[in-house]
Design goal:
It is built from 11 helices and 18 strands. It is elongated and about 75 Å long. It folds into 2 domains: about 15-135, Immunoglobulins (Immunoglobulin-like), CATH 2.60.40; about 145-394, Alpha/Beta hydrolase fold, catalytic domain (Rossmann fold, 3-Layer(aba) Sandwich), CATH 3.40.50.1820. The two termini are about 30 Å apart. The longest helix has 18 residues, at about 240-255. The strands form 3 sheets. Strands 11-12-14-13-15-16-17-18 form an 8-stranded mixed sheet, sandwiched between helices. With about 400 residues, it is α/β, with parallel strands linked by helices.
């Protein structure tokens, strides 16, 4: 996999006027850095300034130092702004890959402390359970049109209570039904791990409404599954798999018109949800015929475990060992995706090769993005089209 993450950390490279955004170069050429001139320059601007292959970030204010913090490669990447002499305008130019995005915050250092803040000159935001980040979109990237509310008929969300002997309590799951749901018809089923977060942070239900309305995917039923403690339930796998295959699925079949075909029963998950999806498919062979695994927390190279001490990665590595030794999961179609800016990229590509070599029909896709909900949203259309593709079309 190519590494596209080289960055210019100097902000304004000396001796390279071609490396300055044209509008900023025009300001510098005037030699006027007065407050009025800077006010005029930034009026109406949105940061970052976008051009092919580069982004230029702007910030205005008094600070001791200023850094851009990106969530990439399983850590925080720090890029340093430069202050333009004679002004309170700070500038950072970053080399990027076109057609991608990343999320970030600004670290503003001042006498006596520092603060991590959203970019005040950038209106684009993305959320997750930990809060909001600013979003940098590179040249040629735009959120998918089908992820926006465009007036498609809304599906219906219902709650289904499941008396779980596996977990020893009643669990309540949300069920998505397509517009025009008809009990005389049968529908594909997609079990979506962390479904509530997927809906809140990745435009899940509006995307399903749009994709069904456009005819890109057939009308389907989705279970927006939730775990009380995903860090424990998902990587352990056994109890979760017994619940999904032995309790959740029968309850959904009893209450709704779900297809009896394994190829029309799909498991979808991102991060640890991908681990749970794969574990369930291998423990209950022939029950689910489709997998959508996004940025899975997999470890295929045991040497990496020394740098990933958390127990979830060790459990994921053991799952991969089981997959290697297990009989081929034939008759299964899988969509595997990753972000090139996340620390899991190589492992997910290796997993795609492993499953493909074991007889699974695999589509693999990567994007210049990180371990983020909007990355997983952007891959949804291709994923569902691939796993729900009719066998008759092959």
């Amino acid at each position: 996999m190519k590494n596209h993450t080289q960055s210019n950390k100097a902000g304004m490279p000396e001796g390279r006027p071609d490396a300055v955004h044209p509008s900023l170069k025009a300001l510098i050429t005037t030699g006027d850095m007065s407050p009025d001139a800077v006010n005029y320059f930034i009026s109406g601007l949105v940061s970052p300034l976008v051009e092919p292959g580069a982004l230029t970030f702007l910030w205005r204010g008094e600070a001791v130092s200023l850094e851009l913090l990106r969530w990439i490669h399983a850590g925080v990447d720090r890029l340093v702004f430069q202050r333009l002499a004679g002004s309170d305008l700070w500038v950072l130019r970053v080399s990027v890959q076109d057609g991608g995005r990343f999320e970030y915050k600004l670290k503003v250092a001042f006498p006596g402390g520092e603060e991590w803040v959203l970019d005040p000159m950038n209106p684009h935001r993305a959320g997750d359970p930990f809060g909001e980040n600013s979003v940098a979109m590179t040249f040629g990237y735009a959120p998918p049109e089908w992820s926006r509310n465009r007036g498609a008929p809304d599906g219906l969300i219902e709650e289904l209570k499941i008396e779980s002997a596996v977990f020893g309590r009643t669990r309540t799951e949300r069920i998505y039904l397509p517009d025009g749901y008809d009990t005389n018809e049968t529908y594909p089923l997609v079990v979506i791990h962390d479904g509530g977060d997927y809906d809140e942070y990745a435009d899940l239900t509006v995307s399903l409404d749009n994709l069904i309305d456009a005819g890109d995917i057939p009308p389907l039923i989705a279970v927006l599954i939730e775990a009380d403690d995903r860090m424990s339930e998902y990587p352990k796998g056994r109890r979760h798999a017994r619940y999904v295959a032995g309790e959740l699925l029968p309850a959904v079949i009893e209450s709704y018109s779900v297809s009896k075909k394994a190829e029309e029963r799909i498991l979808l998950g991102a991060s640890l949800g991908a681990v749970a999806s794969l574990a369930t498919a291998f423990r209950f062979r022939g029950v689910f015929g489709g997998l959508i695994l996004k940025s899975g927390s997999f470890v295929l190279d045991p040497s990496k475990l020394s740098k990933r001490p958390h127990v979830v990665f060790h459990r994921a590595a053991r799952l991969v060992d089981v997959v290697r030794r297990a009989p081929a999961l034939t008759g299964t179609r899988a969509f595997i995706s990753t972000g090139e800016l996340e620390g899991l990229a190589d492992d997910n590509e290796a997993l795609a090769d492993l499953l493909r070599n074991s007889g699974v029909d695999v589509m693999f896709k990567s994007s210049w993005d990180g371990h983020h909900w909007h990355n997983w949203r952007d891959q949804l259309r291709d994923a569902l089209i691939w796993v729900l593709k009719s066998r008759a079309d092959e």
